[in-house]
Amino acid sequence: MIITYSLNQEDFWEYLLSMKKIRFKKSIKKMTIYTIVLSIITTVLFYREEYPLIFIEIMIFAIYIPIFFYNRSILKKRVMNRFQEGDGILGEHTIEILEDGFRESTLINDSFHRWIGVETIDSNVDFIVIMLKNSTFLLIPKKSAFSSIEDAINFEQCIKNLFNKNINTNKNNK
Questions:
Q1: Cα(88)–Cα(109) distance, rounded to whole angstroms?
Q2: Which residue of 15, 112, 140, 145 is surrounded by the most CB atoms within 10 Å?
Q3: 0.70 cut: is pTM over it?
Q4: Position 22 pLDDT exceeds 50
Q5: CA 67 to chain centre
């Protein structure tokens, strides 16, 4: 089975955002902790009876929220500048699925990965992600790699079956 797709900056950013949604709860917890700590510090330093405590907390939120979104926009600029078309990460990818692994070809590289080198195969609504054991990953956007949802599901099922088959074979050989 062979698929060809193009990975662009927006796809990559969307994937990072989907990963951040997992971490979003942690961000909310941090924001809450920061607000409480800042509220206590501000109350101790600036509390006067003419300013209600809720006013101070609202001011802290009003200051912190723009900083939160500014940091996110800076991160997006860094990601967009770091990854460019034709660098081997973005651009056209061809993946050939074989019994003992898969071959990934781009403008820059041609790599063969055995199934034993794969950590996990995950997916969400927009992407199939093949995590390799060397802390790299292959990001396959479903919208540009497949003509239908069924094709994406079949591809994912095929690679998961081959992955599981090879992992079980390697466990039995040990």
A1: 7
A2: 140
A3: no
A4: no
A5: 22
Burial class (CB within 10 angstroms; exposed 0-12, middle 13-18, buried 19+) of 65: exposed
Dist CA 69 CA 57 (whole Å):
19
**pLDDT exceeds 60 at position 167:** yes
CB-CB neighbours of 139 under 10 Å: 19
The pLDDT > 90 percentage for the chain reads: 21
HEC sequence for the chain: CEEEEEECHHHHHHHHHHHHHHHHHHHHHHHHHHHHHHHHHHHHHHCCCCCCHHHHHHHHHHHHHHHHHHHHHHHHHHHHHHCCECCCCEEEEEEEEECCEEEEECCCCEEEEEHHHEEEEEECCCEEEEEECCCCEEEEEHHHHCCCHHHHHHHHHHHHHHHHHHHHHHHHHC
